[in-house]
Structures are given as structure tokens and as C-alpha cells.
Design a protein that fits this description.
This protein is mostly helical and 156 residues long. The chain is built from five helices and four strands; from the N terminus they run αβααβαββα. Strands 1-2 form a two-stranded antiparallel ribbon. Strand 3 and strand 4 form a beta hairpin. Helix 1 packs across helix 4 and helix 3 packs antiparallel against helix 4. The chain is globular, with a radius of gyration of 15 Å. It starts with 7 loop residues before the first helix and ends with a helix.
Length: 156
Amino acid sequence: MNSLTISSDERQQYQQHFLNANPIDGKLPGSVARANLLQSGLTSQQLGDIWELADIDKDGALDFDEYCIALKLVFSLLHHIIPAIPPVLPPGLIPETKYKYFGAGMISPGVHGSAVSIGSPVGRSDTGAALSAGGQSQYAGSATLEWYVPGEDRAR
């Protein structure tokens, strides 16, 4: 698979999406980000998997860097750049501002997109099932977060 990275042109485009969504304290609340991502037409399962990868700090909201990750994955799927959502966040999508969430030695400092290992604290389970019953998703070493998709939408 080609290395996924976010170009400066894409960041500018994503910044417009982000600002138009009216972030609060530099973040989009889960419900706002959810509404924007649902417009993609991807399934709730796919969006839940993308959320798990993009919400690196597991706070239930997306800052600009995390929103860029989510949009890059959404557009990459829609445009068939990737065949499926990766099980772990590709190194080229990990912004320097989020390196602290990854284990020592996983990211080569100063070389965005390169990595010693692609291990990730935001990897999905082998089955790719992002949601358990009740819409809850478990993350190792962090609190349980809810993906903001009502039960009736998840069934689609």
C-alpha cells in the first residue's frame, strides 16, 4: 500500500471544513464531527473504525490534526486510494503533535511519515469491529468512549 500522507493542499481544504464546523476550543465535539463524517456515505461501521484511528488522544472530540486524519481516510476510501481502513494508523498520518501518544522508538523524530514500527495505540481489533453492543468501544489504557451513532443507524 502506498504511504498515506496529507499534503499541504489537503490540509488547507480540510481546514475550511474544520472551521466551517465551528470548533469549540480548537476541537469538534463528537456529535459535530459525526454529522460531518456521515455526509460521506460510508457505513457507520467504517466511520467508527476511522474514528478509532483518528481520535488519537481518545477524548471523544477531534482537533484539527485528528480531523485531517479522519478526512484523509474517508476520502482515500471514497476515491479507492485504499481498499479498506487500515488496522493501525499509517505512520504517514501521525502528526508530530501526536507523537507522544505512541511508544518510544515507533516514530523517527523529524521525519514525518517514517517509522521504526507501525505499532499504534489506536489500532483496531483483528476483526475490525469497532463497536460492541451499546455503541461502546474499548481502548487499551484509556477510558471507554462512545462513537456517536445511534443504534438504528449502526444497523445500516
